[in-house]
């Protein structure tokens, strides 16, 4: 008997091919079988999601360090973990857009913020949520690689660390965000501001668990790390705005405060009349 995938000669008692790992006996396709195959291939929910989720809260160094050093079966791989986080984030955005968009003030209470700018920027955040999620990874990973690297990870390994970290925070915050949308959608943006501070707390917790600095060195590095990360975050936002301006999505008038835009509009109307 030969393997149907790689043609390796198999003994009759083999359940899996020793070369490629394929099953030697394939059952007929049914809906339960399709579901099991999807879970096994993409989510691996049967044995590792809960372990990974709780591990990233209690012992993140075990999850991250385990994967980086070759432990592949005990914890969910970072790509699948990221997939769960993006799925939950997509559900949250769908609920926000379809049910509560009219109740959320996307200007954030800033009276002079141009509502057209707020509308366009929120659309970008909704439509390209997954892309923005991925762009946050280097914002956290690069400063950690340069400033918090007692563990001596390379940059790619720190990317893996922050795929786990950012995904964990997204999954952890999902039920709270959804509950807030349902019961008090108007306060959602206020919660989002506080959550930015909370993600820094969690990120610093993970970095301390990975590197085990003593208190004073860690405190100093944390302050520099936070400042560097905030700088990169605003640099990313400004860079995206410039790109969207150059592509024509934004117009210069979108960046004008409300009072200025109204004054220009009134002057133009007076001149035309």
Distance, first to last CA: 89 Å
Strand content: under 5%
Radius of gyration: 24 Å
Helix content: 55-70%
Q: Which spans of ≥5 residues are poorly predicted at pLDDT below 50?
A: 260-273
Tally of separate domains: 1
The average pLDDT is 82
Apparent shape: globular
* Major sheet attributes: none
Number of strands: 0
Please explain how this structure is put together.
This protein has 273 residues and is mainly α. The termini are far apart. The chain has one domain. Helix 2 crosses helix 3 (60-68). It is 69% helix and 0% strand. The protein is built from 10 helices and no strands.
Topology at a glance:
Blueprint: H1 31-43, H2 49-58, H3 60-68, H4 78-100, H5 115-127, H6 129-147, H7 155-184, H8 188-211, H9 215-246, H10 258-272
Helix pairs in contact: 2-3, 3-7, 4-7, 6-7, 6-9, 7-8
Record keyword descriptors for this entry.
273 residues, mainly alpha, globular, disordered C terminus
Please give a quick description of this structure.
The protein is an all-alpha fold and 273 residues long. It has helices at residues 31-43, 49-58, 60-68, 78-100, 115-127, 129-147, 155-184, 188-211, 215-246, 258-272.
